[in-house]
Amino acid sequence: MRLWTVHPRYLDTRGLVALWRNAYLLAVHEEAARRGHAFDRSKIRRCDCEPILVTRGQLDYEWQRLLAKQRLRDPAFYRANMQVRPRAHPLFRITSGPIASWERS
What we know:
Largest sheet: 2 strands, parallel
Helix content: 40-55%
Order of helices and strands: HHEHHE
């Protein structure tokens, strides 16, 4: 399972549903609820853990992957977000550096 470092606010409907299926953070529900989705809050547990360090290069790489998917499945959403410099999900803390060594690029 991929934990996206990109903040859920940038996910389109398909991305939110896919993330919901993994159900790993309350913040996902809050973003979905703001968009009118009705999910069962009892299936999400809050994570009271230390932030995970991730590099800016990794966040940017994941952002480009997400934009490529959005370009095909939701062109209007893609156009609205293509110039955005994304924020990370609150679970992550960004540091300088390249794409993660484990990433397939």
